[in-house]
Design brief:
Radius of gyration: 31 Å
Number of strands: 2
Length: 410
């Protein structure tokens, strides 16, 4: 009876395999020896499933792997079959395929967290979101999810062989996120809403220092505070350009601003200078203006060619940042140089004095000098503008005029 039951099981498995292979267009010959005990049947299922997936028959391959999982729960190929299902969805691609792949990779990490393949599954989750990224001016949900998953990979597996690839992908993802924030801030800046522009730019320059336009973002911030006559705060952003982006075309202009205000010019940060030089020497195949234009028309995903190739990307999630403080209080208790953001509301403390209806400005690339007139460049930190003095004089004269007008003639 036992032999009859075993034979029935092998015959049923052979019928299943024959039906699956014949339904895929080309019937494959099954070696009878494999089904009689020379080769383990779970191995037969696994190898034939991989062949189906390799040839693009993803549904048939997944069905074989599911059969393996349900029929042989103690098989040595169980983890591989689970991972193979996720890989088949990833290779199939598309919104539906990548969504299913993410779910399957997560399941694999839940059931097999200590296997070496768990790191690969985490990387694939990040890459699935990476594949679904859209352009910077569109929804950045997938980009932020890719950022979070890549950060998780690098924090959990910093020494993994895939870590260098994960770092580069994270730099590219953060370039896309920062570009989206920069475009919104630039829109507010041009419209004259300096407070809204600064609110986004402050987080951008702190969180994404490797962004390709970080120097322009710092310049835009300096210009915004300069227009608001907060010269001491503006000088801090010019100092950041000189220190952190010494090879930027805006560095020399930032030095000129600081010298005009009698502010000491800082020395370039050695690490930032070394990174900038290495970035300049790294060969990168970046398309020209025409190439980027054509890519923007025909490519659905973002252009990541401008992303940095060196430097450590940000690994701290936004929700874990205790608040961003760019400047420390100055001696004497001055708080004019403190700029901080709330981690929950994103409100910028030092931007409360920035106007929301200022005269429309120009972007750094269009007007690197930043200022719309030449008056603010001659002001020194702590110097009160003449408008405030005139306003106080008018307030003093106003009570005298009112008292004289109410006095009756004799």
């Amino acid at each position: 009876m036992l032999r009859i039951g075993q034979n029935t099981r092998w015959i049923g498995m052979a019928v299943l395999l024959a039906a699956l292979t014949s339904s895929c267009g080309r019937a494959r010959r099954v070696n009878p020896a494999d089904l009689q005990g020379n080769v383990a049947p779970d191995r037969v299922l696994y190898e034939q499933a991989l062949e189906d997936i390799r040839k693009g028959r993803h549904a048939a391959g997944r069905l074989l792997l599911q059969t393996l999982i349900s029929t042989y729960p103690d098989s040595e190929y169980l983890a591989k079959a689970k991972l193979g299902i996720a890989d088949s969805y990833y290779k199939e691609g598309g919104t539906s395929g990548l969504t299913q792949a993410i779910a399957e990779y997560r399941d694999f990490r839940v059931f097999f967290p200590f296997l070496p393949e768990a790191a690969y599954a985490q990387m694939q989750i990040a890459m699935a979101y990476y594949q679904r990224m859209e352009k910077p001016d569109r929804d950045r949900t997938n980009a932020r999810m890719a950022e979070a998953e890549l950060q998780t990979f690098l924090l959990e597996y910093p020494e993994h062989e895939l870590a260098p690839i994960a770092e580069q992908r994270l730099r590219e993802v953060q370039e896309v996120i920062a570009e989206g924030e920069y475009r919104i801030a630039r829109f507010y800046f041009i419209k004259g809403n300096l407070r809204a522009a600064a609110g986004r730019l402050i987080e951008l320059v702190e969180r994404y220092p490797l962004y390709s336009k970080a120097d322009e973002a710092n310049w835009m911030l300096a210009d915004a505070f300069e227009r608001a006559e907060q010269i001491e705060v503006a000088s801090k952003f010019y100092e950041r350009i000189v220190r952190l982006y010494p090879l930027s075309p805006l560095a020399e202009r930032a030095k000129e601003k600081l010298l005009a205000w009698n502010v000491p010019v800082p020395q370039p940060d050695p690490a930032a200078l070394a990174r900038a030089q290495q970035e300049r020497e790294t060969p990168v195949d970046r398309p020209g203006f025409l190439g980027r234009t054509l890519l923007g028309i025909f490519k659905t995903g973002p252009d990541v060619s401008m992303a940095a190739r060196t430097g450590k990307p940000t690994l701290t999630p936004p929700s874990e940042q205790p608040g961003t403080t760019l400047f420390e209080p100055q001696p004497g208790g001055s708080t004019a140089s403190i700029v901080a953001t709330s981690p929950t509301t994103g409100e910028v403390a030092a931007t409360s004095q920035l106007p929301t209806d200022a005269k429309p400005g120009q972007t750094p690339s269009a007007n690197p000098s930043g200022s719309s007139d030449g008056e603010s460049s001659s002001k020194k930190p702590g110097q009160k503008p003449e408008n405030d003095k005139k306003k106080k004089e008018k307030e003093k004269k106003k009570p005298e005029e009112e008292s004289s007008s109410t006095r009756r003639p004799n």
